[in-house]
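[agent] plan:
  1. take the single chain provided in the ticket
  2. run structure prediction with default settings
  3. attach structure tokens to the ticket
  4. add a short note for the reviewer (M.T.)
[agent] executing step 1
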Amino acid sequence: MFAKDYIKYKSLKLPDRQDFSDEKMFDEATAYYERMRTRHTVRDFSERPVEREVIEQCIRTAGTAPSGANHQPWHFVAISEAGFKNRIRKAAENEERKFYDGGAGEEWLKALEPMGTSFDKPHLDIAPWLIIIFGQRWGHFDDGTRFKNYYVPESVSIATGFLISALHHAGLSTLTHTPNPMKFLNSMLERPSSEKPVMILAVGHPAENATVPAVAKIKKPLDEILTVCE
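[agent] step 2 finished; step 3 output follows
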């Protein structure tokens, strides 16, 4: 990555190259879209276990994401222990009650109505894995000297996208959860003050009776999300 001492730029020959025909490129893009359009956020999880190696491999994929100055300012905590998950659920629901009791404001709560959400978060207990995603605002060299990380929110967001995609390709479902505030996760998981919890990602197999909000299937058409200048 980088070190305290100045390191000159050194180039390497591109180690991996994909040289597809135009037709192949379109086919690959279409195949990826068709796979990703089957991704659904679910709140109903099965208790079917997921092997640790699968979670590790997906997080390894997340770690390949681009980042500001290649500082890779992220850390993932994967939790499967039932008691630990329950502690997180209780702490998260405590914050969520305040949110749904009016802390969020009328407009925000109205926006959430079609999603059918509430302060009750049983998925935090049932999903076999919770992955807590942290953004690292700064780091330290071996001698304790502090250095700044750059474009942390952007970098962590890209890595999170990689992770969700990898988990979907592994046949798993996810639910993004962002109780506000999330500072309780630092002390609970013994993470340093340099790290900010960004998201709780529930991961597992969907329950047999899993449902999704009907509104979640309504996606903006391409002409609303794309402007082409050529």
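[agent] step 4 note for reviewer: The longest strand covers residues 195-204.
[agent] ticket updated
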